[in-house]
Amino acid sequence: xxxxxxxxxxxxxxxxxxxxxxxxxxxxxxxxxxxxxxxxxxxxxxxxxxxxxxxxxxxxxxxxxxxxxxxxxxxxxxxxxxxxxxxxxxxxxxxxxxxxxxxxxxxxxxxxxxxxxxxxxxxxxxxxxxxxxxxxxxxxxxxxxxxxxxxxxxxxxxxxxxxxxxxxxxxxxxxxxxxxxxxxxxxxxxxxxxxxxxxxxxxxxxxxxxxxxxxxxxxxxxxxxxxxxxxxxxxxxxxxxxxxxxxxxxxxxxxxxxxxxx
Length: 262
Ligand code: NAD
Description:
Layout: E1 8-12, H1 17-28, E2 32-37, H2 40-48, E3 56-60, H3 66-80, E4 85-88, H4 103-131, E5 135-140, H5 153-173, E6 178-185, H6 193-207, H7 214-220, H8 230-241, E7 252-255
Parallel strand pairs: 1-2, 1-4, 2-3, 4-5, 5-6, 6-7
Helix pairs in contact: 1-8, 3-4, 4-5
The protein binds nicotinamide-adenine-dinucleotide.
Residues 12-13, 15-19, 37-38, 61-64, 89-92, 112, 116, 140, 142, 185-188, 192-194 line the site of nicotinamide-adenine-dinucleotide (NAD).
């Protein structure tokens, strides 16, 4: 049998980029997948690429809205009869220098990534604890949760918040057999909606390179000199939630071609 056969995965922000790659990988390993994203049609279209509604469904959920999150978890339980694996991936970036970062920017960034992942983890944890079958919670945090980059105080601060949620929840959910781990990607330009939505132009201006050269710029500053793509992050989710790392919790693994180690 496949490693994730029969497991039920709930992936936020899975209509695009890294989340979509994670949903695709988990489905390929046998999991049933719930694609949760802001827009119902996009979520359903991404789910349809994974197979019929017996293996993947799309749900509309703004992770910053507690009622919406609960409804999405309820829809998961209704469709597949349980939940085993949760990926907090939804995100956006409003990277700006400190003096240009507004209160609204700060609040939106934290609503979606810090509060959003808290709400998703909380609603999912209730079901995981009741099921008494263990499970996995993954946070797609960032290299920026640990290392300071230029012009992104609100984004990086909320990624650091997520990183601490990983440690706190690993402690709190461990007795229920739930592992909680994080992944710190960096420089995933190709296939990423947040780069396309303006972050790419922002980063290109910050680093003084052409936007079309940004992927190569990120690759060049790494140890491996290799561009990081969404599938690399999906591979890390697969490994962290698979059987081999059954004694690993509270860990963050970098998926950054080594830039954080350099
Ligand atoms: P993306 O824009 O392709 O994907 C983000 C998805 O989240 C989108 O589908 C978007 O609709 C969804 N989303 C946004 N706000 C939401 C909300 N309130 N509720 C539900 N869904 C919401 O970008 P990506 O690069 O794939 O980013 C995915 C995650 O990876 C983010 O958390 C991002 O911070 C993190 N990350 C990305 C990189 C990178 O280099 N691309 C590096 C480190 C961390």
